[in-house]
Amino acid sequence: MAKRKREKDENQSEDREEEEEEEEKNGQRDPLEWMGTDIMSMVLNNLDAHSLALSRLVSRRWLAIASSDRLWASKCEELWLQKAHIPRLSQGHGLTKLAAYSLSVMDGKRKRITKYDLCDHVWEFHFNKAAPDYWRNLDPYWKGCGPLPHRYFHPDGSLTADPGDKTWGGHESCYCIVTSYVGEENIREHYVRINRWPRMLVYRKQDWSWKMSNKLYCYSSIPDAHKQGGTGPLFSAF
């Protein structure tokens, strides 16, 4: 009985060796088995973010390695490099780097601006070509001298400028954000209006900065990548 069992174990061992040899010959053996975790992590680190995410589907062991903060921390740094605004949503305490990356990508595609965005940023202001000559003659953008004027949105709905700004009318200003929908999800209109001036359409640039413009003037958010805690809403706003 013991002899028969020993022979069976030996046969199974030989079968496994043959299978491993066949897998190696056909290039089918899991590279994680012979490279080990550390080397495999170095290999995966050379992949782009999309390929790294796909590698998580290979097996449970691959999932654990390809989801590590060590790998996704570098992907987050690459993603955030030269971005104007890093979303606050991705800076949550206890958030994995993979989740931070995913939330950043999602927020970077967001087209709808919120009060958080308006108030978090300092905005550069300049008049557009259709503005009256009097205003354009006061504007450094058209004069070609000096920095552009700054504008500041506040949570109470007010808007201010720096002291001595010649392009600022000196009157009280307030703003509102208007969003209307077709059905439950599709946005029909989305704009920001200051006082009773023409509405400003909202644009999101590739560096995740914001631009708001009408025929008379334009607002552009100033990059603030070093702002602690990120910018924008603490929740998804699509």
Automatic annotation (TrEMBL):
Q: Where is the composition biased (Acidic residues)?
A: 15-24
Q: Where is this region: Disordered?
A: 1-31
The F-box domain sits at: 35-75
What name does UniProt use for this protein? Answer: F-box domain-containing protein
- Which species is this UniProt entry from? Morus notabilis
